[in-house]
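Peptidase domain-containing ABC transporter: structure tokens wanted.
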Amino acid sequence: MFFLLLVGSAVTLAFPFLTQALIDDGVSAKNLNLIALILLSQLGLFLGSITIEVVRNWLMLFIGTKLSITIISDYLKKMLQLPIRFFDTKKMGDFNQRIQDNERIEEFLTSQSLLTFFSIINFSVFFGVLLYYNYTILTVYLILTVLSIGWSYYWLKKRKVLDYLRFQQRAENQESVFEIIKGVTEMKLNQFEDFKRSQWEEVQQKLFKVNIRILKLNQIQLSGFEFMNQLKNILVTFLAATLVVNDKMTLGGLLSVSYIIGQMNSPVNQLISFFRSLQDAKLSLERLNEVQSYPAEESSGQVALPLHTQNNYEFKGIRFDDVSFQYAGSKSPYVLKNINLFIPEGKITAIVGASGSGKTTLMKLLLKFYEPTEGKISYDHININDISPENLRSSCGVVMQDGYIFSDSIERNIITGEKNAHESKLRQAVKTANIEEFIESLPLRYETKIGASGNGISGGQKQRILIARAVYKNPHYIFFDEATSALDSENEKIIHDNLQEFFKGKTVVIIAHRLSTVKNADQILVLKNGELIEKGNHQQLVSERTEYFNLVKNQLELGL
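Answer:
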């Protein structure tokens, strides 16, 4: 790459001397042989320059693509290492816009930086050639060039605030479009398509106003730069013409000076582009660095979760000691308050309570999505803060309320990260989830591709795939959050019976509203307004005739 650009610079250096020789030694002397030789030389140099340019563009594409993949890959790698709380404060459009920022960084590191470096070399070469021709012309050129660069740089600095504002508006625009596409079903059901479209149009108006302000700045900067550039060319041409009239320069020298000025203007324009690209890249890098500088979930010193080990602890299981939790924000209310509980090893624990009582939040704490605001959570007497999140989750089979189905085959959605499926485990998982018959009825069976978020399958089929995914891992800990809420009673009964065998020897935590799902649990925990108000088995809690009794009574009255 560097060699090709150096050769390109050397090729362009020959043109002014060939031009002068063509006029002074060829045309003036009426030497057709010399004219033909010079023109053929120019043609050869031109073809060589084109060849170098083609090869250079291919190399730039190769380097730029590799660099782009590296930047985005590093960004995604870091982003996937961040805790869930980071994603709670960001919108989808924000992440998309940050990924697109890599294009600015790529352009700066590849084309802009390299081209500017060799533009400076070209400028220096032609600077020496112009100095050879005439010192006065060079002085006038340099003064006006410095003024034009200073003018452009001043206005580029003013554009920085507007560029950051445009980034925010573009992120909001992408988020608005993403929301419209994802929520199209609800929009049609509730007839507010026009309202959402009008919201999108408001975002476009904001973006338009920002673009207008940026355009004004760009026009002022560009108009001033072009004016000084043209003034510079006119003055230089006037000075050169004066020298020709006074017989201090030949006509060939005038044409050579004009060619040199044109070649020196190109690096100056490139330098302005470099400053603009540098400013864009710095802003983009700041936005990407917000992700890169955020602490990752995994940290040195964290330990693996011990499983299936013999120890001297009297009680093995999960313990909450005075745990309270609130989401980020000083005025955010406490979702969980002074929770003290014990989830015994190898038993089934059910968590019940009204909506908003903190059940799902408690499960997220168990999975180390968040850290307790107060108190301590322990797995077998090991503080959860000291356990590696990745190691912990590798030992957990989880079905969340909003479990995600990827745009991929059914098999890949079940085995997730494994390169090749373990046939017997896969068969057992789909059998346990009672979805084998459905899969076998499909033309491509396990290779059938389903849409993102489970498009193309029913809610019950989606939940059964999620259950199969959890079962396939054969984990030590099972966490189900309303895992069968979309199932009919027949399918729920079959899956419930299948899971009983699978649950043996595993620590299971189930969040559910249906009595049929929780009544056989070894332990039932009742939450209300973020507090643990009751615990015991089904018979004990019913006999106490308090909160759990009321939940059961309400379900029986509703026929659930």
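DSSP finds 19 helices and twelve strands in the chain. The chain has two domains: 2-292, 317-558.

Cheers.
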